[in-house]
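PROTEIN DESIGN WORKSHEET
SECTION A - STRUCTURE
LENGTH: 117
TOKENS:
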């Protein structure tokens, strides 16, 4: 277990949120880059995001990958980090127009999954 693994999960999570409405918008990409630069292992998260994008994974595939990493490394998933990751996901969902129904559903699912960790 390494803390970097949860940041692999974060990169996958932000990809899932960005893709939840069907495609990645340029403004979302900019917000993702800015937000991840502020994280301690943001470079790791950005690499995970780029891999998901390169392979054109679905939002569901990326979300499942993220949750596997969060669960496997739950020792690093304290309440502050969970809140930070939810805040990042919400910022990405708001980056382009209104939050879509699919983005909102994924955010609700994330909160529920984090409560279960």
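SECTION B - SEQUENCE
RESIDUE ASSIGNMENT:
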């Amino acid at each position: 277990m390494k803390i970097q693994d949860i940041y692999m999960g974060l990169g996958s999570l932000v990809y899932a949120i960005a893709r939840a409405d069907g495609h990645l918008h340029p403004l979302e990409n900019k917000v993702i880059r800015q937000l991840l630069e502020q994280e301690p292992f943001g470079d790791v998260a950005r690499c995970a995001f780029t891999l998901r994008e390169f392979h054109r994974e679905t939002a569901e595939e990326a979300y499942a990958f993220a949750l596997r990493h969060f669960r496997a490394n739950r020792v690093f998933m304290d309440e502050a980090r969970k809140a930070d990751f939810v805040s990042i996901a919400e910022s990405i969902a708001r980056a382009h127009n209104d939050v879509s129904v699919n983005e909102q559903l994924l955010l609700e699912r994330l909160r529920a999954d984090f409560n279960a960790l």
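SECTION C - NOTES
The two ends are 16 Å apart (CA to CA).
The chain has a mean pLDDT of 93.
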